[in-house]
Design brief:
This protein has 401 residues and is of the alpha/beta class. The protein is 39% helix and 14% strand.
Length: 401
Amino acid sequence: MPHNLARHFLLRDDVVYLNHGSYGACPKPVFESYQNWQLELERQPVAYFEPDGVFSARMRAVREALAGELGTDATNIVGQVNATQALNIVAQSLDLKPGDQILTTDHEYAALNKTWAFVARRTGAEIVTVEVPLPLTEESQFTDTVLAGMTDRTRVLFLSHITSPTALTFPIERAVAEARSRGIYTVIDGAHAPGHIPLNLDALGADFYAGNCHKWLMTPKGSAFLYVRPDLQALIDPLVISHGWTLDNKQPGVTGPFGNSAFIDQLQMQGTRDMAAWLAVPDALAFRKAHDWTSVSAECRRMAQDTLARMCAITGMGPLSSPEFCAPQMVTIPIPDCDVVGMHKALMERFRIEMPVLNWKGRSFARLSVQGYNDQHQMDLLVEALCDLLDLRPEGSAAAK
């Protein structure tokens, strides 16, 4: 990996930032584009927001650029602030009734667990959570577990593509196909997927898919998307009713008030809001291309897997999955039980390392993200820090032999 990638980012040089997965980090030229769009807004707000003119054309251009990365058509995606917001739109649009079941796993993001709990309380639907066997080493372990949880009452299958607490890439393809064949809505949390793993949303066949751009695509915060299959777009209701809404939004193929589909207009034009982060998405795609991000990602994956293996060898604790089911640039490292809040604080105070330390299902973990601004020296420092704080015998020491 080129040694100068860190200079392209705005991260503080006195912090070893190993937490890209939480909020991402935006390269300098992409952030400059973002600020330029904000200046454009302030210089002529009326022209900037004219919904059936330049504004609509600019938003469409971003959808077209991003759609090429996602394997779909620009008419199937719409810009949102974050994946949680986008998935709330879906969850609160579905017509669920008492007795309906929402099937999910024990690896989901806490905010979305709360979203479905809210929906269940409001509708009377029931949440069914299956426990994915660990370590995950075979696709069938995941798929068979999910399919076993389906009943004739299952109306929604909600899955993460890449999990937040455990940094696993779930092999969701067969589960999605089976759910669709049974008439079950498939809702996928792809918050960590865009820019992290290859995506072809049309081929995947999920009904609804939300992803963040600000994480692994490295766009500014406030840029995400919602994908909805064309034949289901009429099901969607916005969380905010504003200028883009039309009375006929429930009719398939209806054009919205600003010339797009009703699906696009009602979610895109919702009063005054700063869309500069979304408009900077093409610049992030260009940055990745200019720096051969395929090669960068491969080196990041090597460092992440190597660091996980080193720590597992020291602790004697096994990883949560075989390498093919790990998120490429993000791994969850099992560590001995500890005060996770205190451990996070000590990593920063003593070693200037920023990374999450968490408790999941009664076990302690450190979640490592590796991005193009990281290097091998930082991986070595992390191993040293964890060994020191956990009172472990580091690899290669006399005591360890």
